[in-house]
Predict the 3D structure of the following.
Amino acid sequence: MKRFYAAPIVFVVGACVLFLTGWAFTFQGGLVLMACGLVETLLSARSLWQAGCRGDDKRFSGSAALQEAGYAITAAGLGCLLLQYPNAALPFVCFSAAALFLAQLVLSLSGVVIATSRAGYRLALFCLAGVPMTLGFAGLWQLCQGALSLPMAEAAAWVKPLLAVLFAVLGLTWGLRLGACGMYYRAVSADAEREKPPFRLAEAMAPVADFVLGLFPILLVAQAEQLLLSARLPFPVGDFMGLIWGGTGRYAIYSPLIVAVLFFMLLAVLDAVSGKRRAES
Amino acid sequence: MKFLMINIGVGLVQAVALTLAAPLLLGIVFRLARIGRPGPADGLLFLYERLGAARFHNLSLGPTLEFVCVFLAASMLPGFLGAKITFGDFPLLTALLGMAALAAALYGEEDGGSGVPQKQVLFEAGLFCAALFLAIACRGFHAMSTMLPDAAFQFRGTYLTGYTELAALGFFSLLAAEGEGALRYFTGTRPEAMTFWGALARLLRTVVLLMLCAELFLPVPLPSGPRALVTAVLLAAVLAVLGHFRLYARRILLTAAPVLLFLSILAQ
């Protein structure tokens, strides 16, 4: 068990040391921090997949947490890297992505822990996988924006391959995470020995409450971002605000906030109803 | 506001019409792809027949949710709602397609009537999402934007470079793997074992990839529709060759796609 987590934990501790000593806020420090985050994300994605295949609760939750931490460290590293360039707003985007990943870590995992103990884990796994309209997706989206807005003309030539690696790792780990969530569900639901308690609506609502609570940090970050960014910045603020409120910009049609809440509530109700039927049968 | 609503209404009608036409387009592709394969070939309209015979009642939540996610993803493309609202964000598109796979795994039936083990389906879904993310990222990386219209616009005039060829090859591997999987699914599964929305989602997902390939990687100065048709013919030819020489290796194609795309990003 200890060996299983050893390497990712070493990277988390290393990243914290970088932050505490202040070295992370230099150009090289930012790069090292980002590399630490990427390696940790890859390592924990591998262990997450293994835990998902086995249906191992503890390792699955632990690896998912370490992967979120890896994303947060990557975002923070990219933010530190962007601090070296004149536009002060860009690092903020990455730091808010790191904050979103950390919030996702706490909220989604608490949802999974509650749900796995009460057999309502499907919805919680949905939140954990980082599907659209969750904190994990918002963080990923901001991280992509931050990476693409790095001023390439001013950056060194080797920064571009590094960003290519960043995108590759993001894609691979996100795909693995999604698959691992499905594998975990499959392994757990196929386990005939496990006694499933009957499903209740209140328990299905736990991940929903987790999700709705998870929306508040995004709103706060969005408001702070709106206050801090000036109108002449290259970052498309309208898009981001549209993503949250659904009222303006390119995201108008989906109205994500309203749709998300209704959608997850509907899922919870359907899940609860189908669970009740299964328990009765 | 009124103008926006009219635009969205027209776009929705267009999206529904394209969804209804998708079985015909893929029927042609699959009919051509069956050349050289053993067994009797199906007609051009066989996908409509399959959909008509598919199970419509007593569905689990998974297939319906899967279709909704794929339809939302499709709506970002120029042929659907994309041109009306200049929508299309690549992390969102990939995440929606990934969400569809996860919804099918969590809320669907054991194997969706396809006979393929769910473990394999999930493994392939992970690879698919990773490859798609890389595919659109490599264009976005070039355009320095996460929006599909920007990525497609920046592509004009850069298609003769080595990295673009690599990217196109990688994406086409993904498309071929998806087409082969869809062909196997529709020809190898009993119609009554298929769920209607699940089968429609499968069709639409292949069309989404086809249109994305045409939009992002096909260097022909034509509108979106004819370009999609050209890509469909190319796909049919590749599937026919793969079937004729018994080179079926879907996992190899799925694995080759992210590798080629990663090399393409590095080459930039």
